[in-house]
Amino acid sequence: MPENREAMEEKKSNRGGKREGAGRPRQENSKKQMAMKLDKDLYDVFYSSEFLNAVENRGRYINSAIRSAMIRDGYISEEVTRPTDS
Question: What pTM did the predictor assign?
Answer without folding.
Answer: 0.58
